[in-house]
Write a structure and sequence with these properties.
Blueprint (H helix, E strand, L loop, with lengths): L2 H18 L29 E7 L2 E8 L5 E5 L9 H22 L7 H9 L18 H13 L2 H9 L8 H15 L6 H11 L9 H18 L3
Antiparallel strand pairs: 1-2, 2-3
Helix pairs in contact: 2-4, 6-8
């Protein structure tokens, strides 16, 4: 074989092998790392009656979680609030009870016991169901709440009677004296028509029956049973 033919064959083989090789691809760019959003910390409180406190050292909020199936979150009164003072809380609760008792005596079955709470809330710019927020208020606002409740109590029918009775020279009507006597006897566990009570009336007033007593005699008898109630309860 001639030298020229050998060179031609060598060139042909080289060209064929180069065309069969894949072209050099550009190097792929490295993938940028994924950025994950930073999740805010979450506090979970599981169980019944558990408590968690949050806030700074000067303003700490205490939260109690009650119930497991349908948990109810309750914000506990912070120190220095009305609800954290047991005396103020009892005072306000007593006023609620007095108002409800006086209204119930007059209205009977048609009376709604929750009505006074809604009235209080509206008076202080709250929604009806938000009245419990008063327990979170500063103690300095207790006077406002108590004054409002006292005014409501004194404006009831029974409240007006009792307020007037505290005034000088006030005289109860005979029917009202009868009611006072009945309430006192019930507290003492005495039966007003029993021979023992009739004998006691005669011993103290000189009359067995209230119907036979003058107004002053009846008033003295009622005053006596009122004192017996106080002595019975250690007042």
């Amino acid at each position: 074989m001639k030298e020229e033919d050998k060179e031609a064959i060598a060139r042909l083989i080289q060209e064929t092998s180069e065309s069969a090789l894949p072209a050099n691809e550009p190097s792929a760019k490295p993938k940028a790392p994924r950025s994950r959003k930073k999740k805010e910390p979450v506090i979970a409180v599981n169980g019944n009656g558990n408590q968690v406190a949050g806030g700074d050292i000067n303003n700490t909020t205490h939260i109690r979680v009650a119930g497991s199936s349908r948990p109810k979150i309750e914000v506990l009164p912070p120190p220095g609030s009305i609800g954290a003072n047991p005396l103020l809380r009892v005072r306000i609760d007593d006023l609620f009870k007095q108002i409800n008792d006086f209204r119930h005596k007059r209205l009977g079955k048609s009376f709604r016991f929750s009505g006074i709470h809604g009235d209080l809330a509206k008076a202080f710019g709250l929604k009806s169901k938000e009245w419990r927020q008063i327990w979170l208020w500063q103690e300095s606002r207790a006077d406002e709440v108590i004054a409002w409740l006292e005014a409501k109590r004194d404006n009831t029918q029974q409240g007006r009677i009792e307020k007037a009775a505290r005034g000088e020279g006030y005289r109860h009507t005979r029917p009202h004296l009868f009611r006072i006597e009945k309430e006192c006897l019930e507290k003492l566990g005495w039966d007003g028509s029993s021979p023992e009570v009739r004998a006691m009336r005669y011993r103290m007033i000189g009359k067995e029956s209230r119907a036979d007593m003058s107004y002053n005699e009846l008033a003295r008898w009622v005053a006596y049973v009122q004192e017996e109630v106080k002595r019975f309860h250690g007042e």
